[in-house]
Amino acid sequence: MDGAGDSAVQAKVTPQDRLSALLAEDMAAVNALIRQRMASEHAPRIPEVTAHLVEAGGKRLRPLLTLAAARMLGYAGGDHVKLAATVEFIHTATLLHDDVVDESQRRRGRPTANLLWDNKSSVLVGDYLFSRSFQLMVETGNLRVLDILADASATIAEGEVLQLTAAQDLRTDEAIYLQVVRGKTAALFAAATEVGGIIAGADDTQVAALRDYGDALGIAFQIADDILDYGGSDAVIGKNTGDDFRERKLTLPVIRAVARADAGERAFWERVIERGDQREGDLAEALAILRRHDSIAASRDEALAWSARARRALDNLPVHPLRDTLSELADFVVRRLF
């Protein structure tokens, strides 16, 4: 009985949990720095809003990637902690802004900051965190790191603006979708791993491998999330199932169904996505159309292909327990779909 219980517990330990355990000391330093730098002497609402999101149970995947990249390549300094905190601040700032843009009400299973406070507070606190992130990255004194993270911040914003125009336009194809995903998710994954390698003095081949790993991991991660929105439990994805449908977002499963739609199905998508005329039972109808065209299965195959690409990128990096865990992580982000 005890053995069976131990096996059940072991099965619940994810690669991200193992990454957290391997980097526990570094991550404790990152968390302490985050709490220190999100403080504000003159505007107490800033730490209130920030703490609501930062302490909401997120597993800090992006800063873990920075720490893992640096340690895997033998870094022994302290700047990787500043860069990991920078990455988390950028991520948190984008979440605050995204929830305002999307009019979201839940994030990580909790009410969003814009719902608990207001849109103005969320936007301004997000701006504050962006400013804090640039202060931290400048403190490393590494211009290459500054260039990468600044570029990632611009790419994230560009991706969000592109999504505004593309998300409800049935002409949006897979190439545009991939551009949006690279902006909103993969850009920060790629930057997180890349700067970890740079601060460790990695050579160009290793830096490129880290960037490719982060990019492919981020794309696989986002496609998986988009699939789960049409079939995952709220507990798994941290938001309401069907949110993307209600927000009229053209994600990969829908794009593939639209490409194969007959006249009646296209009229349905035009009504619910382009015109926003959604009625009771429409989500169920959307799911039926997705199943009819195997859109979920095809999107799952795409996520698996990006996961495999991420694992291959690691072949150019040193043998290390952290490399093994990063490989398992790339597999895990898509295994959620099965």
From TrEMBL:
<dbReference type="Pfam" id="PF00348">
    <property type="entry name" value="polyprenyl_synt"/>
</dbReference>
<keyword id="KW-0479">Metal-binding</keyword>
<dbReference type="InterPro" id="IPR033749">
    <property type="entry name" value="Polyprenyl_synt_CS"/>
</dbReference>
<keyword id="KW-0808">Transferase</keyword>
<dbReference type="InterPro" id="IPR008949">
    <property type="entry name" value="Isoprenoid_synthase_dom_sf"/>
</dbReference>
<dbReference type="InterPro" id="IPR000092">
    <property type="entry name" value="Polyprenyl_synt"/>
</dbReference>
<comment type="similarity">
    <text>Belongs to the FPP/GGPP synthase family.</text>
</comment>
<keyword id="KW-0460">Magnesium</keyword>
<protein>
    <submittedName>
        <fullName>Polyprenyl synthetase family protein</fullName>
    </submittedName>
</protein>
